[in-house]
Amino acid sequence: MVKNQLTFPFIILCLLFQVFFSTVVSGQLSLSGKVVNGETGLPLPGVSVYFNNTSIGTSSNDKGEFFFRNVDLVNTELIVSSIGFEILVLKINAAQTNGKTFLCQLTPKEEQMKDVLILSDARRKRFLEIFKENFLGQTREADRSSMQNLKSIYFTRGTNATGFNAYSDTPIIITNSQLGYKVSFQLVEFSYDETNGTTYFYGYTRYEELGEKQRWIKNRRDAYFGSTLHFFRSLINDKLNEEGYDLYLVKPMAKSEKTPAADIAVTITPAQVISVSEKDTGYLKITVPGKLMVQYRRNPPSKNYLARKMMVMGSMRLGFRAYVNLTEAYFFIDRNGIVENPLSVFFGGYWVYERAANLLPFNYQPGD
């Protein structure tokens, strides 16, 4: 039994990505399709067609056609996106759709009335600074990333006076010079609340190589080991100890006359929290009656960078400490380590600094 020393301010981060719905496991999937204007029936060339949050994508040709051959996906989301049209999201199950042809009808986007904030140049600049820091993160990867299309971002009022929401009708283009990706992020919504330190955002993501990927192999491995993706994959494959993790369940300890209120952290194993999901054999059910504390026994390269930049939350002499907070008693995860419903999981401690700039495509493997 280990006492949980919570002596630092605690910030919760919710990476509310719909990209987490993707399931990326070994398999071969081929499909084709045609994209047309849903009102006129005319073909739409140059439409972006990609598997959500992966590096697998293409564009429709002059006839509106697109093709995928023998891609390593089983269950995923196919995103069909073009400026001026509503995004089309197709749930793809390889067993049912392999070899099929799709007719994708895009609906012209209607103007939606939002209470858009009219900001002075100085205030808009401040909002954009907050947006960039909370969207990209505060890591080396974030500092070596640049963003385009910021003029397309507009802001609305948040749930209280200390926050705001952000939207964009065109994809935000991120050039990640540390990991070697050009990222197209279709932002659906971003929410920031200064009062409780909460940030969440969600959207659809396409990765493209900036060049020969061999140049970034080491940097990508550095970003992967110690990440939430690495942790979840280690958890479901029962390799926590082998991969350098210790797992605890945090419980409140009852206050008495002799002892003040405190939390205790009890060691648990993957078998105590993982069970096969009854709703879908492609998912596992993670049941946690409280909060998980994760200790990583190794120092990721990003730790030294963050230590020079700021006081690192959840930091220890060796490794780091992070937290997985649940909004419900359980959540579902696929067999590649992807959380089915991101709203069900919030991260804290060390992982609060890692955001969009640290994310890797879900078809990434450390041997790539």
Write the layout of secondary structure elements.
Elements lengths: L1 E2 L9 E2 L14 E9 L10 E4 L5 E3 L5 E7 L3 E7 L6 E6 H4 L3 E6 L14 H16 L3 H4 L1 E3 L5 E5 L5 E6 L3 E5 L4 E13 L4 E12 L7 H8 L3 H9 L3 H4 L1 E9 L8 E6 L6 E3 L6 E5 L3 E6 L4 H9 L10 E7 L3 E5 L10 E5 L19
Parallel strand pairs: 2-15, 3-9
Antiparallel strand pairs: 1-17, 3-6, 4-5, 4-7, 7-8, 10-13, 11-12, 12-14, 13-14, 14-15, 16-17, 16-20, 18-19, 19-22, 20-21, 21-23
Rg over C-alpha atoms, rounded to the nearest angstrom: 21 Å
Structurally, the number of domains stands at 3
Mean pLDDT: 84
Segments where pLDDT lies below 50 for 5+ residues? 1-26
Q: Helix share of residues?
A: 10-25%
- Extended strand count: 23
Q: Helix/strand-derived class?
A: mainly beta
For the terminal residues, how far apart are their CA atoms? 39 Å
Number of DSSP helices? 7
**Elements, N to C (H/E):** EEEEEEEEHEHHEEEEEEHHHEEEEEHEEE
What overall form do the CA principal axes indicate? globular
Report the portion of residues in β strands: 35-45%
Largest sheet: 7 strands, mixed
Description:
A hairpin with a 4-residue loop joins strand 14 and strand 15. This protein has seven helices and 23 strands. By secondary structure, the protein is mainly beta. It has three domains: 157 residues, no CATH class; 78 residues, Carboxypeptidase-like, regulatory domain (Immunoglobulin-like); 93 residues.
Quick overview:
The chain has 7 helices and 23 strands. The chain has helices at residues 94-97, 121-136, 140-143, 217-224, 228-236, 240-243, 301-309, and strands at 2-3, 13-14, 29-37, 48-51, 57-59, 65-71, 75-81, 88-93, 101-106, 145-147, 153-157, 163-168, 172-176, 181-193, 198-209, 245-253, 262-267, 274-276, 283-287, 291-296, 320-326, 330-334, 345-349.
